[in-house]
Amino acid sequence: MGERSAFFYGTLMAPQVLYRVCYGFSEPTTLQKSLLRIQPAVLHEYCRHKVINCDYPAIIPSANDSVRGAYVHGLTDADIRRLDIFEGSEYARRKVEVQLLDAVGYDDGRGNEEGQTKVAETYIWTADEEYLEEGEWDFAEFKRDKLRDWVGRRDEFDEIDEIFNAQDHDPTGGRGANGKISEHLKNTEAEVIKNAV
Fold it and tell me: Which residues contact 84 (CB under 8 A, 6 or more apart)?
């Protein structure tokens, strides 16, 4: 299990998208799923906007605003490299402090009960703000209307896979879709299930 932590506030809040970026497929094994701990969290002093003509959001600094998202612990250096490729040049990875949520309230923050403070990395918009819509990005709308396109379409992730496959070494440490560790985990899980019956 990795020791890196990140805060995600957009498409990567959907576990299927996160798994696809980190592991190469949207439905990893039970063992792979257990490597990441995902908890609701809030990032203060930022606001989230939809990127114009895109399915995904961006965050920018904004006093008196907050963004609810997901704190993910257990990421490896290889996961972070894949996430960097996924996020692209419009974002910069920065360390931030987030509050874990002991209770999740309404979208506007009412009813949230904040707990521990954690340091995490997140991706902050660095491109021109003219590419951002005025309003808030809607995760529920994304899950309802767009998620199936992101998880079901292979081409969304081809660039990530191509870059990783072109490297001389396996920066996923064998955890990629066709990696030795992934294959071993699949086989081990199948053997455990078979022996349990």
Answer: 93
Burial label, 94 (beta-carbon count in 10 A; 0-12, 13-18, 19+):
exposed
Mean pLDDT of the 182-197 span: 55
Query: What pLDDT shows up at residue 176?
Result: 41
Which residue type occupies 121?
E
pLDDT of residue 101: 94
Closest C-alpha to 7, from 27, 37, 51, 52: 37
Does residue 59 contact residue 98 with C-beta atoms inside 8 Å?
Answer: no
- State the pTM of this model: 0.77
Per DSSP, 186 falls in state H
Q: Which residues contact 156 (CB under 8 A, 6 or more apart)?
A: 149, 150
